[in-house]
């Protein structure tokens, strides 16, 4: 087993998403974000730009300058526009019902309805435990799962940068041993961040890599061990069984771990992300969601049915290509940014 530092690669393509194409390294944080003051709200506002453009324009089109009578026709049109963001019929219907409850039979203006929708979305997204679970005694072990192309490895890099920037030490585990590009990409992230990484030979047992990652984190006294896994479809039962094996092996080395199992979902997948969550939630015992590629999607509303159906907290959202383009999920900021910006 080798412990690697960063080395550069000239590979390109979707497997290197999140890397600067000129250097094959993680893209640097855009200066404009820092100049604008940064912060969770500004990041989420930028990430939801496409969703907000679709939803805001659609809702505004329902109104005239003199306002609009809230009747069944209006409520039906509002419902149709809401589901275009892939928020699903359940959450969209709750919003429709709340708007009807407050305004039915009245002539209302756009800003009144926007405020009511925002408050209802806040209510639906409210969650008790949004932050990462932390072990009483380090390391905290985080297993990261998801389908191929979901942005899983890039999300690990961003999460690692986030933790390292907040003063935490960590060890990464390149458990996607069947995809050389994933190991290379994670190795580059580790080198850029300044943390150790455990890798195995191509095709090595992922459970072995996971075990040795936890072992190394214990040895060096790291705060976190973050383990990548092979991308898989939720219908691939043999690979789902492999996830169960990884969990058992990790628990054998450090009883009670993994402390978090984060499912990375591609926001651009919209409602398809729901079926992914169903399969992984059962097989991997997921404890939270990372919603990746939010900046590239007009389907940011998908977070609502994820919360409704699974009651899994959304832990982080991916908002761009840079190392710092990940934010801890904040329901209030998300609801405001979805419609107001």
Describe the 3D structure.
Part of the signal recognition particle protein translocation system, which is composed of SRP and FtsY. Its main location: membrane. This is Signal recognition particle receptor FtsY. Involved in targeting and insertion of nascent membrane proteins into the cytoplasmic membrane. Acts as a receptor for the complex formed by the signal recognition particle (SRP) and the ribosome-nascent chain (RNC). It is a single chain. By secondary structure, this protein is α/β, with parallel strands linked by helices. The protein has 13 helices and 13 strands. The strands form three sheets. Strands 1-8-7-9-6-10-11-12-13 form a nine-stranded mixed β-sheet, sandwiched between helices. α11 (about 270-285) links the parallel β10 and β11 (about 290). The longest helix has 17 residues, at about 235-255.
Shape: elongated
Give the spatial strand order of the biggest sheet.
1-8-7-9-6-10-11-12-13
Mean pLDDT: 82
Uncertain ranges: 1-18, 20-25, 27-38
Structural class, by secondary structure, is: alpha/beta
Main sheet makeup:
9 strands, mixed
**Residues in helix, %:** 40-55%
**So what's the oligomer here?**
single chain
Radius of gyration from CA coordinates: 21 Å
Listing every helix as H and every strand as E from the N terminus to the C terminus, the arrangement reads EEEHHHEHHEHEHEHEHEHEHEHEEH
Cα separation of the termini: 48 Å
Strands, total number? 13
What percent strand?
5-15%
Q: What is the overall number of helices?
A: 13
């Amino acid at each position: 087993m080798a412990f690697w530092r960063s080395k550069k690669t000239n590979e390109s393509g979707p497997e290197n998403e999140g890397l600067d194409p000129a250097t094959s390294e993680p893209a640097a944080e855009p200066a404009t974000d820092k100049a604008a003051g940064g912060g969770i709200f500004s990041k989420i506002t930028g990430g939801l730009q496409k969703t907000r453009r679709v939803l805001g324009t659609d809702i505004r089109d329902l109104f005239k300058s003199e306002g609009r009578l809230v009747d069944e026709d209006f409520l039906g049109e509002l419902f149709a526009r809401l589901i275009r963001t892939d928020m699903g019929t359940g959450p969209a219907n709750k919003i429709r019902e709340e708007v009807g409850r407050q305004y039915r039979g009245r002539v209302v203006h756009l800003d009144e309805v926007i405020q009511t929708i925002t408050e209802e979305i806040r209510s639906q997204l409210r969650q008790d435990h949004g932050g990462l679970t932390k072990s009483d005694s380090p390391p905290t072990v985080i297993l990261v799962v998801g389908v191929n192309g979901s942005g899983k490895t890039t999300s690990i890099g961003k999460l690692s940068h986030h933790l390292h920037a907040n003063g935490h030490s960590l060890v990464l585990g390149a458990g996607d041993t069947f995809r050389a590009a994933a190991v290379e990409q994670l190795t580059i992230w580790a080198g850029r961040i300044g943390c150790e990484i455990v890798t195995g030979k191509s095709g090595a047992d992922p459970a072995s890599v996971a075990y040795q990652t936890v072992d190394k984190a214990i040895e060096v006294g790291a705060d976190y061990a973050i383990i990548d896994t092979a991308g898989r479809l939720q219908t691939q039962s043999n690979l789902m069984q492999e996830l169960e094996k990884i969990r058992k092996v990790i628990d054998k080395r450090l009883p009670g771990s993994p402390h978090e199992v984060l499912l990375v979902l591609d926001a651009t997948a919209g409602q398809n992300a729901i079926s992914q969550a169903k399969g992984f939630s059962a097989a991997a015992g997921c404890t939270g969601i990372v919603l990746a590629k939010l900046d590239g999607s007009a389907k940011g509303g998908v977070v609502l049915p994820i919360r409704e159906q699974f009651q899994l907290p959304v832990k982080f959202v991916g908002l761009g290509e840079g190392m710092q383009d990940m934010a801890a999920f904040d329901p209030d900021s998300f609801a405001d940014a979805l419609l107001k910006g």
